[in-house]
Structure formats: structure tokens, C-alpha cells
Amino acid sequence: MPIRHYQRPKDLAAAQAALRQPGAAPLMLGPRIPAEPFAAMDTAVDLRLLDLAYIREDGEGIHIGALTPLQDIAESSQLESQAGGILPEAAGLAAHLGLRHLATLGGSLSWPDIAVVLLALEAVVVAVSAQKRETPLADFQAAEGELILEVKFSAQTGAGGALARVARTPRDEAIVCAAAVVTKDTARVAVAGASPQSIVRSSPITRNQLTNNQLLSLVDAITSAAHPAGDYRASAEYRKAMAGVLARRALSSLSSSSSLSSFSPERST
Amino acid sequence: MIIHLTLNGTSAQLDCAPGDTLLAALRRAHVWSVKHGCETGECGACSVLLDGKIAPTCVLLAAQAEGRNVVTVESLASGHAERVHPIQQAFIDAGAVQCGYCTPAMILATKALLEKENNPTEAQAREALSATLCRCTGYKKPVEAVLRAAALLRGEIVPPVKGGGIPFEAVFGFPRELPPETPETPASHGGTITKHLIAFPITITQPQQQTDVVGHPEPKVDAVKLVKGRPVFTDDIELPGMLHAALLTSPHAHARIRNIDVSQARALPGVHAVLTYQDVPRVIYASGGQSYPNPPPWDQVSLDAKVRHVGDRVAVVAAETPEIAREAVNLIEVDYEVLPAVFNTEDALRGDVVIHEEPDAVKIHDPKRNVAITNHAEHGDIEKALAESDHVFERTYHVHQVQQASIEPHVVVTYWDEDDRLVIRSSTQVPFHVRRMIAPLLGLPVKRIRVIKPRIGGGFGGKQEMLIEDLCAHLTLATGRPVRFEYTREQEFTSARSRHPQKIAYRAGVMNDGALHALDMHVLEDTGAYGTHALTVGTVSGLRGLSTYRCPNLRFVLEAVYTNKPTPGAFRGYGAPQALFALECLMEEIALELNLDPVEFRLKNAVRVGDEVVIARALGEGKEGFEQIIQSCALPECVEQGSAAIGWDRQADPRWRFDPERPHIRRGLGMAACMHGSAIAGLDMGAASIKMNDDGSFNLLVGATDIGTGSDTVLAQIAAETLGCPLSDILPYSSDTDFTPFDTGAYASSTTYISGGAVMRAAARVREQILERAKLMLNLETVEGMYLRDRRVFAPDGRSVSLAEVALHSLHTFDQQQIMATASHMSYHSPPPFGAQFAEVEVDTETGQVTVKKLVMAVDCGTAINPQTAAGQIEGGMAQALGYTVSEEMVYDDAGRLLTTRFGDYRIFQADEMPELEAILVPTYEPSGPFGAKAVAEIPMDGVAPAIANAVHHAAGVRIRDLPLTPEKVWRALQRR
């Protein structure tokens, strides 16, 4: 059934009221849009009058509005300086240019590349239903009628970051992908495609130095946590193996303190 | 609700429902350049500039455009002048327009990019073009167009696109003799010289030594309307009272319909017809658009009481809006008796499940074992030859099911005209076959049916069917109203056609000196739920799998088997890509095992000029074929030029194969030799009519169907060359069963060779009439020595009359006569184009991911009538073949439900992830072809997969014998090593 109502609330209170109606849903697209994107809605709630498209930094860290288009993230010089620029890189890989103009961060939290990068950055989701709540992305599950407002994480200008992925084509959706972020005291790696939920593991380190042993035990931790389901793109066995390969690859590129630069996945030009 | 927006610079209002997409609202407002290709934003054909940014409109509500600025390609160059925007001009000049369906979106993406960055890099151009999937071009020429447009807009002078032509000696076998009175300063390469004599200037034209139109990169004749986004496609029309159709498809792989209740659907307001098997006559047919009599088996009816795959037809609805039609489909209640189903050929052959038990099916080979058809051919004594061979190799290869995925879906509009004749406006490659085949299904005589083929947004064989026209026509018969029926993208995958999966088992006997002695090829072909094209595709596999190399003992055995999967059909290459994947991997494997150089081993055994292709005679389409002697072949030259372009000598350089920066990467090079055909010998026929107008221009009417390949341009070039006029004086029209002569259609690489031959013959007849008329006007005794050039007819003494004067004289002045002619062409030859395909890859040895870095194909297609469109065919074909090799695949779950029903999952390459492509044309002169031409359309599909598989072997030492080369498959092979 096609949607019957379209609403464009002027402020957050009106938006919340609109979203409380039965069958109401926000227009917040991700990279993968269902064949009938509006089929499940009775009322489409267009949030564009709410100021939810922004990338800004304050004392707390980086804030990205839920309606920020992926292309704005991909092009952001501010985000380029965070953890080797892996968030812009992930956003740029998430979809083609036209869809990146429509897909927003709030609609992309479960997209493999974006999810692993945000998890490696220890991102927190700010959402509102009856009241506002802040939840680490790793624990976040949207509740009925809840509206995602923004995603935030601590500034990571000094950190190294790397994204590693395997896909059928250079820019296809990743079958498995891993993101690693190494700060001065923590190494964190997240893997998607190897379990129903993305896997995150971290290890304390000293002075930006990820030792080989720390790296191997992180990779082991990821592999043992991987309980994938197979699908038409890859079997469970392959996904589990790739979880280890890609976690190691992402971390290895950051394991020497002298090279905390981003490891770029294969790109064809 | 009313939406207020700025549309192309002026404020506009759109009246729409809350659920309407912006795509639907724009098209309803007759903004026709915005095209439907999918419903998920993934193809981008529907893109507009939304506040200056490229964005697909199929996933936007019209309501979201409120207050925003929407720009479509209609704003770039309006009106009916020839003038186009510099970006549009660059797309025309660069040859970036093939079918043109996605061109408006590409042009908009270019506009947005160039407004931001006036000197973009190639990577930026590719990123912009990534917003649109293109199935035709391989993106190389669109990227060049973006860069050229940027230069134009910066005010730079860009080099003209010119060059080419072929020596007249090649065309006519001798150089033109000079006229008796030659100018004082003869030009070396033709051209017009004005010589001032005493009283007035006389124009004397040098006899040409080079063709003027043929062999030149002429802009496509349909390019201007396509870059402007004019309403030229099937769906770009709105008829009064037009209804919209929707199809109910089967959710089960195999089931009998116990009961079907359409009462609720019929009762829904706005519904005008609901048809099931109970409502349409049961007439057996085969849907493949093939020549009369259609090859067996005939195993389909328009609507049946049994369904044989998920996506099979159940019922069809016509309603006042697409939304009502879809809602009505959901209200149809079907009680299915679900039957056991089979999804692979081995299971099917056991016969536990019988897919076609209907008694009225015609010529199914063995329905109890689900064998649709078989074929068999033999030359020499294969068993004896294998026994006496020094080495025998047995290998089995598997080629998977892939989809044509033209960006324009199947779409048709049917209506009664003022004479009560049924008009079928269809996106088809085979209008004449559709008319003949649909007539008995509708109970109408052929003469009461007219099929119109407008511009087509890509076909690749998928529209070589009478696929949905029958259902739409039945709805017009039932309602009396015009009806429009378009597949969704999901239906394109589940309910259209695809490539036949094949299991190909070879046995090869080789002698110690490296000579092939025996080739035995067994093909087990999966024809899905119906047998359309099964015989011909399988037969072409045998033909192509046993032709490239000299071998005295050959055998081919084909068995095509039904399964409960969507039906394969014709797909560019038509059996050849399957066969050549197997053959070219096999040749590589043999050479490596015998320590022979794979390239030298191929060339040693390859056929050459003067050879007979013996299998061709043994293997007709279910009957005896015709003798095929090779008259032109530049395979060695293709290998040489392709090797140089890919840097083949790196193959032997171990340092090149490793990357110290990325220790998990191995590099490799691979190649494949290719040989194809040009049309089906003794079967394919094309015809053309040429009519001269008052101003000396010509209407060229062809039944040949340009589906984006540029065939109208190529055919017009052949006519222009023969008639001594520029391309712009030829007005091609294709195709309409009322107005154009018959043609088998866009079919089997036949258009340039067969239809081109017809055009050349018709043009020669018109030329004779022109010469006769000019002889009369110039008071000459004979036409000998007269020639046509530069819109004039010249006498040997240098006097001339213009074509316009000839036309006026003939039409109005004396012994009045319409100068026109019709000619047909059929050929017992199917001269093979040859090609050498090269691939450079990187294999990630930890993940198995194969990244193709470069593809080079050198092709001998005889004369390239238009080198730019020919190169476009090669580049686009390589891109399709690349997807088929590494990512594209129709995959099913255990219940036979297709899992890859959208572009993202099916994964066609985007512009910003393509390898470098290089097409090289190696000219030969094919004596049987028009101006020496052979085919070029399909051969680029043939070599990419084996070249990549061979390169993967070279890089990582693993041999993958089943496509596609997915990361996991390569990884598993690496694990086993």
C-alpha cells in the first residue's frame, strides 16, 4: 500500500508528535533502499526542516547530524583529519554519488563500512523518543518511534585509522570489512559481515605502540567472536576466515608507530 | 496535493498524491528525459539535479521536492534548433551515447561536476558518472566526454573527431582512374579543388582514393535527440484513456493452480480487466524471436494453469493507474498445489519431477527426463582420434546464469488504431518476429497488427523475444483501451530472460608436436522453465567451441534440460561466451601442461585464411549447415597489437608479479583468442528501402533494429558512401512493420553484415537510377565512368549535376519517376571476426579478491564502418563480460527464489571502479561484407572471462573452472593449493 500522508514538521516537538502516529516513519534513507521505500509507511515524516544535517566539533568531540548526507561526510575536511579519514572513506564507499546525496548517516548505521568505522571510533548515538538518550553504537537499538538525532565521538586527530575490506568489485558492498583505530592508549578493531552484529574488540596500549602480540590477540578475539551466517555472497566459513584476515590487515597497517596513516583498500581508477 | 518547486528555472506546480515518487510526478508532467530503470535508486537513470546535486528520483517522494530547485536535461538546450549545450556536444563528439537511455542523467552529473570543478581529473569524472549505471559503453567514452566538455567550457580548442576512411582500392579492388582532365595540383587524398578557368569557376572533384563516410567516426545519427532527452523511447508517450498493466507472478517454483479467485481484484474501482489462463485462448508457442518456423520446443502459452518457476506468469491486470493495478494484483487469490521442483540439470535428468507434461507441447525431445532438445555433430572419428593422440586432456567447465540487465526494462504500449488495427509499440529487438508470432496468440491476422520499435534503451539479446507483448495486447483486446505494461527491475530478473548456464565437458587429443588432433565437446545446458532459444544457443556453443582451431576430428553433443528456474534466452554472444570460456581455459591448460607457450600453441593451431570451418557444415540450426571458408583473418596481428598494449612481456618478469608494498598481492596477465560469426548463415535476412527526395536527400527505411548499438548510423554511412552524399543527407528510420521492409532484427551480430549488405545493394540500385537520370541530363551515351560524390553526379569529362537537380528532374520535369529501390540480403557466409583479449589482474591471496586492472581487446572486424561506434561496442562488451566474470550472478535459495533481484545485489560495475579499457581495431577486408565489414557486436563478450581466469592462474597459480570468480571461490582454490 502506498503512503497516504506526508508531513514536514517544523520542529522537534512536532516531529516527535508526528512520529507517534501509528504507521508513521521518518524519511531517513541509507545506502540500500528497499524496492518500495515507502511501502511500510502510512505517514512519511520529512525531517528536513529540523536542523539535523551538520558536522561540527566542540569540547566534547565531533557531532554529525542524523540527516547529514553521506556525501557531505565523504567530502568533509574536518572528518578527513579524524583517525586517518576512515569515516569519509567509508561514506564514499557506501553508495554511488547520487545515492550519497540522499542517504544519510542516520539511515546508514548498520551499513558494514560505516558501522565498523563508527564502532572503532567508539561513536555514541543520540536519539529521542519520550526523552533523549545517549547510547554507544555498539549497544544501540532503535526503539519504536524513536528518532536518531546525531552520532558523536571523541576527536581523534592524533589517532591512526585503517579500513580493510573484501568485495566482489572494488566498490561493491563489503562481504566482510574491518576498521581499526589506534589512539595513544587504545587499539580498537571492529568487523562487520562475520556475525549478526558487528564485532568490536579493543586492547590497551602504551604510547601509540601496538605490539605484535597485542595485535595477534586482538585478531584472535575477533575470530573467536565471529559466528557468521552464510549467504549467497559468501559462506560462514569464509566470513569467519576473513574476519581474522581483515582485522589483522587493518591493525597491521597501524602497528608501527611511525606509520599511523590510513591503509587504503584497493581502488581502481 | 500540490507541490511548488523550481523546475528548470521556472516555478512550477506538480499535482501528486502523497505517495508519488518524484520520478512518477515528473514523467506525468511530461519531463520525459527522466527515465525509469529501477525502484531502488541504484541505476540512476531517473536522476535530476536537486538543488544542484545529482540524485535519483525513484526513491524520493514528489513532496520532498517542495520549495526545491530541480533541473533536468530539458533545460540545457531547448527548442528545435540543432544547437546543443557544450556538454551535450562533447557527449556526441566523444561517442559517449549508445542507447541514450542513461545519457540525460550522465549529462546532468557532468553539469553538476563542472559547475564545481572546471578542470576535473579522470577520477572526479568517474565519480560523477558513478551516479548512473551504463550497460552499453563501459564508461570509457563518457569519461572522455566529461573531460572534453570541461575543456570546451574552459574555452579551450578541442581537437575535432575525424580521421579514418578506407582505401578505395580495398573497396573496389582497383584505384579509381583519374578523369581525362586533371587539375594542375592534384591532391594526394581526394578533396575538392576549385580551378579558375577563363570565364567562370568549374568545380572539379578529384576521384577519391579514400572513402568519404565509411570508415569515419561519424557522430551517431540519433545522438542529438538522445542528448536532449527527447521523448523517443517506448514509454515516452501518453495516449488518451491509457491503462496501466501489472503482472502477478508465481511465488512457487513449481505448482498447479487449483483455483484462482479474481473477484476482489475485478471489483476494485479503476480496474478494467483481470486475465488468467481461464480468459485467454490456449495457443502453444515458443517466445524466442526467431525466424519461421520457430525452432522447437514449443512449450509456452500466454497464461497457464501451471507455473514452472518463481516469477512465472499467473495473471495480468489493467487499471487506471499503476498503483491501482498493483493493488489489484495483490487482491488476486490463488490456491496453488505446490509440486516438487528441480534446480539443476542433473536432478532434472532423473525425471522424478516432470516440468512439461502438457500434451499440447510440440517437439519436446524427452519430457519425461526434462530434456527440451538435443543436437549432435561429428567430423572425423573422435574415439579413434583420441585413442591415437599422444596426450589426452579431460576438463569440465561451468558457466553461470547472468542477466542482460538493459537499463530500460521491457516495456510495451498496445492500442487499437483508427482502422481497428492493433498497434504494438514495443522495446523489442525483433519487431517483425513479434508481429508474426503474436498473431496466432491473439487470433488476429498479421495484417491487422503493426509493431513499432522506437529507440531502445539497450537489449543485449534480452529483447530478442516476444516476451510481454502478448499480455499487454490481450488487455487491449479485453478493454478496448490503450494499455501500457512495463516490468519492474525485480521482474526483469525473475521474469525476463538470461544467459543459459552450461556445463561444458571437453576431451582434447594433442600430438607431441603440439597439433590438436581431437576435440570432443559435451554441453549440458540449463534452459530453465521453458526451451526458448535453447537449441540455437546450445548449437552456437558447439559451433564456437569447435571453430577457432584446426582439428581433424570433432564431436559436439548438446543436451538442453528444463529446471524450475527463470528461463534463459538470447544474451549477447549467444552460446559463444560459454564455449570460449571453456575452450580458452582448456587451451591454456594444455599448453602449460605440455610446457608450450600458450600464445604460440594457440596461433600454431588457429584457423587461417583459406581454411574451412568444418564444424559449421556439420552443425546447422538443427539441420545441415553451409560450407564456411575463411576469407579474412588477422588473429596473429590482433595478438601482436594486443600484447604490445597490455605489456605482455611483463608476464615473464617475476619482479613485476609481486608488490613489496602489498605482500598479499600477486599480479598476472592472461589472454584468450576469440572467433565469432557474422549472422546465421543462410537464415538471417535484412532488407532496406531507399527513396530520393526533392532536395537530393534520401529516406533510408530499414527493418534492422538499432537498440543503441549505432546500427542506424552504420547503415546510413553505407548508404551515404554509395550515394556520394554526406551522412546528414541520409534520413534513417527503423523500424515499423508498416513502413520498413523485413529484417530478422538485432540478432546474432548480423546488422552490419546482413542489413548493411541490403543497404549497400539498395543504394547501388538507387545509384544506378541516379546515373541513368544524370546521363539523360548531361546528354551522355553511357553511364560508364560516371561517379557520385559531394552530392553531385560527375561525368568522365568533369561536368556534373547535383543530386537535387537529379531529384527535381526525375520527380517533376521529364519521364517522371520516383528514384527508389528496395533490396534484400542474405548470406551463406558467416565470416568470423577475430579478436585477442588480454587481461591484467591483481589477486589478493588472503581474501581471494580479483581486481582487474586493465582489459585490452584487439579485434579484426574487417572494415569498421564507424571506428568510434565499433570501439564503443568493444569497450561496452568488455565491461559486461567483466561483470559476468567477477560479480554478476543469478543466485537462488533452496526454494528457487532468486536472491539477486536488484542492481546492488546483482552488481554491475560502476564508472568509478572500472579497469582501464583499450579497444584496438585491426582492419582486414572481408570480401563478402559491405565495404569489407564483419561483425563486432558480440565478440567482445567472448574472451574476457577466460583471459581473466588465465590471468588469475598466472598470478596465483589457481585454476578456476566455474564462473564467476568470486573472492570465496578463488580463496578456496588458494586454500587447496
Gross morphology of chain A is globular
Q: What is the CATH class of the largest domain in chain A?
A: Alpha Beta
Distance between the termini of chain B: 65 Å
| Spatial shape of chain B | globular
User: In oligomeric terms, what are we looking at?
Assistant: heterodimer
Number of helices of chain B: 26
Q: How large is the count of helical segments of chain A?
A: 8
Can you count the beta strands of chain A?
12
Helix content of chain B: 25-40%
Low-pLDDT stretches of chain B? 174-205
Any idea what the CATH architecture of the largest domain in chain B is? 2-Layer Sandwich
Secondary-structure content class of chain B: alpha+beta
As a percent range, the share of helical residues of chain A equals 25-40%
Kindly report the spatial arrangement of strands forming the biggest sheet of chain A: 4-5-8-6-7
Strand content of chain A: 15-25%
**Element string of chain A (H = helix, E = strand):** EHEEEEHHHHHEEEEEEEHH
CATH topology of the largest domain in chain A: Uridine Diphospho-n-acetylenolpyruvylglucosamine Reductase, domain 3
CATH architecture title of the largest domain in chain A: 2-Layer Sandwich
Major sheet description of chain B: 7 strands, mixed
Structural class designation of chain A: alpha+beta
Polypeptide structure, described:
- The complex is a heterodimer of chains A (269) and B (977).
- Chain A has helices at residues 12-19, 70-74, 77-80, 86-94, 97-102, 112-120, 212-225, 236-252, and strands spanning 5-7, 24-26, 43-45, 55-58, 61-65, 124-128, 132-136, 147-153, 160-166, 176-182, 186-192, 199-204.
- Chain A is of the alpha+beta class and 269 residues long.
- Chain A has a five-stranded antiparallel sheet with strand order 4-5-8-6-7, with no helix packed on it. In chain A, strands 9-10-11-12 form a four-stranded antiparallel sheet, sandwiched between helices.
- In chain A, a hairpin with a 3-residue loop joins strand 10 and strand 11 (186-192).
- In chain A, helix 7 (212-225) runs antiparallel to helix 8.
- The longest helix of chain A is centred in the C-terminal third of the chain and has 17 residues, at 236-252.
- Chain B is α+β, with helices and mostly antiparallel strands and 977 residues long.
- Chain B has five domains: 2-43 and 58-67, no CATH class; 86-161, DNA polymerase, domain 1 (Orthogonal Bundle), CATH 1.10.150.120; 243-339 and 410-486, Aldehyde oxidase/xanthine dehydrogenase, a/b hammerhead (Aldehyde Oxidoreductase, domain 3, Alpha-Beta Complex), CATH 3.90.1170.50; 502-679 and 830-976, Aldehyde oxidase/xanthine dehydrogenase, molybdopterin binding domain (Aldehyde Oxidoreductase, domain 4, 2-Layer Sandwich), CATH 3.30.365.10; 685-826, 2-Layer Sandwich (Aldehyde Oxidoreductase, domain 4), CATH 3.30.365.
- Helix content of chain B is 28%, strand content 21%.
- Chain B contains 26 helices and 33 strands.
- A seven-stranded mixed sheet of chain B has the order 10-12-8-19-16-17-18, with helices on both faces. Chain B has a five-stranded mixed sheet with strand order 2-1-5-3-4, with helices on one face. Chain B has a five-stranded mixed sheet with strand order 14-22-21-20-15, sandwiched between helices.
- In chain B, a hairpin with a 5-residue loop joins strand 16 (411-416) and strand 17 (422-426).
- Chains A and B meet through helix 5 and helix 8 of A and strand 4, helix 4, strand 32 and helix 26 of B.
